[in-house]
Amino acid sequence: MKYTLEGHDRDNGVQEMLISLLPDEPHDRVASLPENADGCRSRAWEENGSIFASAQIRMGERHSEITLSNPVPQETDGEEYKRVLTYTVKSAVYQALLPLLDHKPVWGSMTGVKPAKPARLAIREGMDRAALDDYLREHYDVSENRRRLCIRSAEYALAAEDSLLPRETQLYLGIPFCPAKCSYCSFVSNDMTRWGHMIPPYVDALLQEVEAAGELLRTHAIPLGSVYIGGGTPTTLDEAQLDALLSAIHRAFDLSACREFTVEAGRPETITRGKLDVMRTHGVSRISINPQTMNDAVLRGVGRCHTAADIEACYRMARESGDFLINMDLIAGLPGDDDESLLRSVRRVAALEPDNITIHCLARKRGARLYFGATGVLPAETLDRAYAHLEGLGYEPYYLYRQKYMAGGLENVGFCRPGTASHYNICMMEELSDVIALGSGGVSKLCSENGRKVHRVANPKYPKEYLERIDAIAAEKRTLLDR
Ligand code: SF4
């Protein structure tokens, strides 16, 4: 949708709202719109102590407009003024667009990628659950189910926050290789058939960075709360490489305070009994085996070379091999999938009784075509049925995030059996503690002021650049906290 701004500079806010409500089309700011042209005109002004915002939206024959206002805030530092202006402008766009939509958005006018974070901060500042529920409904028009997800995730985050040791940090290591690229994937993942020759030098470089990061944390006497090896597909490493990496982590870091050690094994064809043994002997406590769907035709269609039966066999092997907590990822909105197939996948995965189940909604690249079912729309009710099934079996939602261009404007939710919530996932998502990230694509986060301020330091995205710069990256890692 084309849009114009008049009297304000809240371009990001308007963009975010349009992307959130109309994720299937591009949104471009233009200098002006001809009369009666499709598009959104957003205007703001100040009058009699109030900030006013109007939005006029035309979509074909349909037209809607609204004007809202909020009092000018007392604070004079400018930040609160900007916050109220943004909120008023976005709310006006939301209210004007609402009658033109086919479905009411379950997240209302909430656009952030971490919905539980403001909820956690509000509870921390003394707001009780009932008042928070009212606030989410009145200010953002969030549906009842999403308010519940949000508040429950905030409660898990509060508990994780209360359990943190002073200066506790989490460690992430990225293995950006996969057996083959899945058609829907937007991560940097390098197909092994083409890039497999880079794995040995990549592991060597990663060991160098592990040593540097270990030195950093030891110098500053910082305890490590969790380790997470993600990807890509970390089990593209062979047994010897996995053993070398896990041994290096044990040598470099004091793991005495580490409460969780995850390897996101991922695709079943890369998981062997030998690799599971290596993980077990090195104290890995949590693994992921990710079906994405249990529909074989959909798996074939997205370029995965395993079946649902392979997933079940792999799961049984992992259960026999060690006392791992097991997470399983599913994706809603895959090409060729539909409501009933998604629910069958959820039921079949839950029947295995993994400790955690994470349901993602496919995040499309901008402008990509719609997937899912006959209509191309992933209905929130389908996810509600999936969530209800899991909650009926005793799983609880414990962390939550959203992405731009997410199918149906929905969310990703991690479910856990009581007592099995992933500490790393909560800390990383809610920005409760620093995360030191190693490997290409890793983004270290240094958090302050209760996660309100986050300083990010990114490693190069691609392995080639990472290998070329590894000496400098390792040197920087040793001084990351000297700010
Ligand atoms: S296995 Fe995961 S990271 Fe690798 S290509 Fe598929 S979706 Fe992307």
Task: Tell me what you see in this structure.
The structure is a single chain. This protein has 483 residues and is α/β, with parallel strands linked by helices. It has 2 domains: 1-101, Maf protein, CATH 3.90.950; 163-478, tm_1862 like domain (pyruvate-formate lyase- activating enzyme). The protein has helices spanning 11-21, 79-97, 116-124, 129-140, 144-162, 192-195, 199-219, 239-252, 273-281, 296-301, 308-321, 339-351, 380-392, 423-430, 463-478, and strands at residues 2-6, 28-29, 39-47, 50-59, 62-71, 169-175, 177-178, 190-191, 224-231, 260-266, 286-289, 325-332, 356-361, 396-401, 412-416, 434-438, 443-448, 453-458. It has a 9-stranded mixed β-sheet with strand order 14-15-13-12-11-10-9-6-16, sandwiched between helices. A 5-stranded mixed β-sheet has the order 2-1-3-4-5. Strands 7-8 form a two-stranded parallel sheet. Helix 5 (144-162) packs across helix 14. The longest helix is centred in the middle third of the chain and has 21 residues, at 199-219. The protein starts with a strand and ends in a 5-residue tail after the last helix. The model has no long low-confidence stretch (mean pLDDT 93). It binds iron/sulfur cluster (SF4). Iron/sulfur cluster binds next to loops.
